[in-house]
DNA sequence: CCGACTAACCGAACAGTGTTAGGTTAACCC
DNA sequence: GGGTTAACCTAACACTGTTCGGTTAGTCGG
């Protein structure tokens, strides 16, 4: 197939299909050939629209993070922190399979930095020193990313026999998969509340 | 080369060389062929001692996590939480390049579960409900893993020009790489202290 | 002492990966 | 209408984890 009358590919379409594959099959489930097939195209054609796979993932990550809301600081800084953390986590948990990628490389994404800049500025305006503001923002990110990884409550076996013998205090851990989502959210809220209260 | 007089390979030696490669070249820098070459051997030979690469990484992860100290709960639960979190983070930051692997899959490693069991039991003994104990343990892990990922303060550019124009509040961010380690540790301590105090 | 057996390694291969080079043709512009 | 470019293709490269079948050194039973 030579040049088609209407283009089959566009950066947007590539990104959105790629994200759908990641959501469905996980981060490892995305390969350039599979992505191309989903788009009705050969793998090499993607490179006319996308520089590398890594760049594609970065772009997808940025688009996911664009949903983070840092508008809550007009009320007060505690409320701002909480809203920011919640929306950040919400964005990440909508596409949990891309979190390992975010956790991988440096945070030099433009979207991240812009939000960080706002956060930092708001904390300084509220009276914290620059250094304190940096540490508070970092602490907030720790909780957000830690909870988004959710390598915690997910990934537990659902077979009671896996626990009763070897881990006496985890004898109800097999119930976790069923309530994992809810428990993860409550754990996040607990950690967030404790952190902000403790500042 | 057929069977050598003294074996060249052992699971221990494989693990330790693999970990050294990961520490030096990152998680992506470890391939079975490269590992084999470092051991003076062909790649296929590794599979007589190691089931899969994934299993190898799991074993390495377990050995790294074996340094986590959960003995502090004999004093009181706050002290126990803090000590556990500190030693956990220390273990992870000694081999930061393996953290993305930990963050990837489920936490079904035996080492993790044993420590989690102790932690959970100690919190319940201290009067927390089972559910609360689970959430507190989760929150602690959020902070530990979030800070260990350190996709935060690391990964900043050291060129001031990257920030001054676009991110007015981050005009000193170029100083970060130089003090990143210290700042990361302080951020972790702040988050940990705030979290435990806020409980 | 000698044969059987096993343990430890190797070479070659398979299916998969990201990526690039070079070719073909449709659409667009002058 | 001819030249240029954009969008796709096929084929290949160098790599990945892993497996199969061989080759030989060490070990153990008779």
TrEMBL record, chains A, B:
It holds the Pfam family TetR_C_1. Residues 8-68 form the HTH tetR-type domain. Residues 31-50 bind DNA. Coiled coil: none annotated. Gene3D superfamilies: Tetracycline Repressor, domain 2 (1.10.357.10). It comes from the Bacteria. InterPro entries: DNA-bd_HTH_TetR-type_CS, Homeodomain-like_sf, HTH-type_TetR-like_transc_reg, HTH_TetR, Repressor_TetR_C, Tet_transcr_reg_TetR, Tet_transcr_reg_TetR-rel_C_sf. PROSITE patterns: HTH_TETR_1, HTH_TETR_2. The keyword Repressor applies. The keyword Zinc-finger does not apply. Keywords: DNA-binding, Repressor, Transcription, Transcription regulation. This is TetR family transcriptional regulator. It comes from Lentzea pudingi.
């Amino acid at each position: 197939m030579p040049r088609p009358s209407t283009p089959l590919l566009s950066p947007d379409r590539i990104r959105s299909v790629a994200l759908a594959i990641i959501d469905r099959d996980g981060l490892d489930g995305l390969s350039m050939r599979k992505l191309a097939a989903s788009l009705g195209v050969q793998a090499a054609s993607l490179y006319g629209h996308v520089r590398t796979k890594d760049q594609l993932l970065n772009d997808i990550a940025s688009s996911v993070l664009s949903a983070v809301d840092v508008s809550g600081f007009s009320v007060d800084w505690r409320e701002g922190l909480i809203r920011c953390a919640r929306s950040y986590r919400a964005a990440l948990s909508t596409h949990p399979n891309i979190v390992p990628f975010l956790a991988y490389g440096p945070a030099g994404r433009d979207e991240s930095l812009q939000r960080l800049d706002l956060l930092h500025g708001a904390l300084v305006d509220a009276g914290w020193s620059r250094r304190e503001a940096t540490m508070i923002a970092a602490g907030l990110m720790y909780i957000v990313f830690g909870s988004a990884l959710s390598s915690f409550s997910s990934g537990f076996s659902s077979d009671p026999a896996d626990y009763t013998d070897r881990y006496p205090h985890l004898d109800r851990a097999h119930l976790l998969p069923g309530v994992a989502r809810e428990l993860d959210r409550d754990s996040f809220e607990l950690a967030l509340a404790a952190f902000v209260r403790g500042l």
